[in-house]
Amino acid sequence: MAISPLRRFWAWLLTPPDEVLADAARDGEALVARVRTWLTLIFLTIPLFSLAADPAGEEHWVGLALASVALLSALLLERTVARGLHRPMLPYLTAVADVSIVSLGLLAFWLIDMPIVTVNSRVVFEIYLLAIAATSLRYSPQVCAVSGATAMVQYLLLSVLIQLAASPESLSRDQPDYGGFDWATQIARLILLFGMTILALAIVSRTTRLRRQSTFDRLTGLFNRAYVEEYLGPELLRTSREGAPVIVAMLDVDKFKPFNDSYGHAAGDAALRQLAEQLRGTLRRSDVIARFGGEEIVVVMPGTRLPAALEKLEELRIAIGLKPIALPRGGTGRITVSIGVAAYPEDGREAETLLDVADSRLYAAKEAGRNRVVAS
């Protein structure tokens, strides 16, 4: 039975971000929260200056009320994000809230008997574009699509509501400042919102592709050293708040240079690719695996206590030594690995310290005869 386009679209919306984009999305949400606060502060000055020049203008008081509500919402959201209360649905909720505040601002003009401003506003409508553009900072095409679709649906409903509920006189072309109501203008604005959504999607697509290229090791498909060093610090801060353990393991292929000399560099590359596949297939999705340099690999195991980590790493060490490697020139070869393990917080509370401890225990494993796991 074929899956309907609507169900496919819903499944796409619910697709979780991959590991490389999860941290970027959290950082992007924090940046959006700061930008939202500063923008609402700037927008607050517009009705303030307008009221200073024309205190009797009802639309200026509406603008002040809208800007004040937006500022309070922005401060609350920024505080929520700063406290680390990030949840998978938070970007969707904040993106919808951003465009909904604009829609409420336009609706407020109708409530004070200025419906033509609702559909022909020359300032408030443009904030839709800023709200949609900001979604590109979240590294999520799904959030961009939801934001753009929400803006278009809400603005279309506002246009239909105004045409049906407002008096013809209030929508006539005799309005000196805002002109009259016509569907050509409203459709043009909807097309503008759609175009902004496509642009935001293109920006997200480009930035995520560049981030993946700068984050992954091309040979093994694992994360690279820069990523694990960037990831480990914030991860330790998060786990320290929750009181959770973290394991950092440093893994190195034993006698890799003689292996390359005997079978060739292509065989060495094949061995590293197979090692990467075994690691991905054995460890959890939440564990971060990165090629640290040469034949060294770092594994970060959040939420894992030392006994469980040692059991898993020992199982992995044995499996690696038993699995033959298909050599490009024919035949098979085998490798073994040595592993050094450091535990947070027992062995240190800083990322650099844990990596250094794991590295020193890795060399202790090699000095003790290789093909073993060494912890405290």
Task: Describe, in plain words, how this protein is organized in 3D.
This protein has 376 residues and is α/β, with parallel strands linked by helices. 65% of the residues lie in helices and 10% in strands. It has helices spanning 5-13, 19-53, 58-82, 90-111, 115-120, 124-134, 141-165, 183-215, 225-242, 256-263, 265-282, 306-322, 351-367, and strands spanning 223-224, 246-253, 288-293, 296-302, 325-326, 332-333, 337-344, 373-374. The strands form two sheets. The chain has a six-stranded mixed beta sheet with strand order 1-3-4-2-7-8, with helices on both faces. A two-stranded antiparallel sheet has the order 5-6. Helix 3 (58-82) runs antiparallel to helix 4 (90-111). The radius of gyration is 28 Å and the shape is elongated. The protein starts with a helix and ends with a strand.
CA radius of gyration is 28 Å
Helix content: 55-70%
Q: How many extended strands?
A: 8
What's the main sheet like?
A: 6 strands, mixed
Write out the strand line-up for the largest beta sheet, numbering strands in chain order: 1-3-4-2-7-8
| SSE topology string | HHHHHHHHEHEHHEEHEEEHE
Task: State the low-pLDDT regions, or none.
Answer: none
The termini sit apart by 56 Å
Average pLDDT metric? 84
Multimerization state: single chain
The global form is: elongated
Supply the number of helical segments: 13
Helix-strand category:
alpha/beta
Strand content: 5-15%
